[in-house]
Design brief:
With 129 residues, this protein is mostly helical. It has helices at 25-29, 43-50, 67-73, 83-102, 122-125; strands spanning 60-61, 64-66, 110-112.
Amino acid sequence: MAFRGLHNADPLDTSVLVLQDRHRSHLVDTEQVSMTGTCVLDVAGLCGELLSVIPPDEALRGSAISIRWLCQQLSTPAPDADEVSLQWSARGFILALIGSFLFADKKEVHVHLCFLPLLRDFTQTSSYS
């Protein structure tokens, strides 16, 4: 990797800033993109809308859902499933991946539902960094 910045006594490494104007993170500061918020959720409404299933109280721990229960409910879509059913299964699968690999809790058994609204529109998901 080539060094792109000029070496000076400034503690800021300018080589990191070369591609900053092309990165989406600068849009957050100008309020053009909002990717943060609270995690106060209507669990039943959110899961019913985006996953087509409402988890029982045993599958919930606060605002987190059991990955095992999630995989049992949305494991394999039917071969003749319509696009909406495939999206429900895809959201469940991606949510399980987030909870078990990307942002796993200590026991890797629950995933926080605050990630689920980010999967509402798959056309927007590709723009997240």
